[in-house]
Amino acid sequence: xxxxxxxxxxxxxxxxxxxxxxxxxxxxxxxxxxxxxxxxxxxxxxxxxxxxxxxxxxxxxxxxxxxxxxxxxxxxxxxxxxxxxxxxxxxxxxxxxxxxxxxxxxxxxxxxxxxxxxxxxxxxxxxxxxxxxxxxxxxxxxxxxxxxxxxxxxxxxxxxxxxxxxxxxxxxxxxxxxxxxxxxxxxxxxxxxxxxxxxxxxxxxxxxxxxxxxxxxxxxxxxxxxxxxxxxxxxxxxxxxxxxxxxxxxxxxxxxxxxxxxxxxxxxxxxxxxxxxxxxxxxxxxxxxxxxxxxxxxxxxxxxxxxxxxxxxxxxxxxxxxxxxxxxxxxxxxxxxxxxxxxxxxxxxxxxxxxxxxxxxxxxxxxxxxxxxxxxxxxxxxxxxxxxxxxxxxxxxxx
Length: 399
Hints:
The chain has helices at 5-8, 38-45, 65-73, 90-101, 121-135, 156-179, 182-225, 238-255, 258-261, 268-298, 304-366, 368-398; strands at residues 12-16, 23-27, 33-36, 48-49, 57-58, 77-80, 85-88, 114-115, 230-231.
């Protein structure tokens, strides 16, 4: 029987908090309880299924060591030898489903960027790389870096000069070799080689510096070129950011499910395309709402007409938010149904496996009477042998 949204809300209890130090107790599908902190919940929610093992969820490599240790201590994660990484346990996978299905109960931070469905895979990779690069904080300057050991990169003019010096050195050495004695050639060979090597090193160093500069300058260009084709959590205000996180978790729950990857839902490609379209539409609406809220809050109200207009704007915004909330709840309901179908399919497979064990055990037990009968015959034979031996001893004694 399918649980409604109101039924699953009762399984979350705040133990301590609020803030990053809060601990939440959750009752899982099998009746077990788990106590988790916000960092633990975020790490579990970001876990992704492995391609060849859809039932196994790998932790993101960027999860802090302390969070991993807390997950392991809580029985939610463990090290998988086959994949060579940290993965969710069965209990951890149940917690992940609970986080997805009950995302409206928590501050579900977005898992990343929502992109336009028509954006190519290459552009998506470039965009994610650029966003990650832009979000990196500069590393602290170390004392040893205050006086750099290497000089600053040379200019293009200096690089051309280095090549000219290299060619001149090579030509000079060859000319000396043709017109001079062997002793003179040997004497000039080493300085010529050192001069040429220095010029070549200078040229290569300049090329590397130019390549790095081009790569760094290209990252912001990608973001500028793709403006209007992506939405991130940083572009939204707090209410919209949490709603985007809920939508993304619901979409991920469907696409990451084992029954989707096995093709047991709709056509896999069609399902992926439809959900991408819905996620992008939600992200665009949330971005529009964030901007509208900011404009309403910052527009001065100097009279009755502006106050009435502000009230109309808030009413329209409230209705728009309610519409997006309905769409997100539809996604969450879809994710919940997929999870229930996944549990049903797992229950069926477990029942088949356990029935096989029961049949095997019954067959083994049916063979036990034959073993007992054979053992009984052996015991009677041993008793008869002892009696025969006793008779033989008696016969020898009477003689």
